Amino acid sequence: METTIPNETYSFIVKLVKVAYGYGASVLELKTAIARLSATLGFQAEAVGQGPVARLTFWREDEGEQQSLFVQLPAPSIDLSKAVLIDELVADVEAGTSLVAEGSARLEQIESKPAQFGPLATGLAFVLIGAVIPVFFAASWVDVALGGLMGLVAFGIMLLAGRFSWVARTLEFTTAFVAALL
Known about the structure:
Radius of gyration: 19 Å
Mean pLDDT: 84
Helix content: 55-70%
Structural class: mainly alpha
Distance between the termini: 53 Å
Number of helices: 8
Shape: elongated
Order of helices and strands: HHEEEHHHHHH
Low-confidence stretches: none
């Protein structure tokens, strides 16, 4: 099926979805970003998440055809510094200060950058976030310690998700299940 949407635009959006999801963006965030970005580029696009797969649909209002792609999403690994760079890239393409070809090159650069924080700092952040939540509810110090332990367990599950695809596909369920057992 022939459409008038350039292939480099398809490639850019597919790569954007994979990279952004891999660094912590939710499917809802991707859906809104792609809708805004595609409108800027002169066509319509929609993203729908279905488990570890996203369906991307592209079309132009003046054409009677749509093209749908199924994209396998990578295992999530939260890297907020890279997520911020991706947000800036999308804003630049929307504003017209960066072209799609430049955006693809910037995505490559973002992917090749080393993580700003190592696993020790990331693990500590998980523990601290888990420990701080009970403080908001004026809980006891035992609850604060248990919250920190749950944060450490959640970090361990995130590490496992990077190594085992079955953990990545069931990340939310696995984390909730283990936290419920504790």
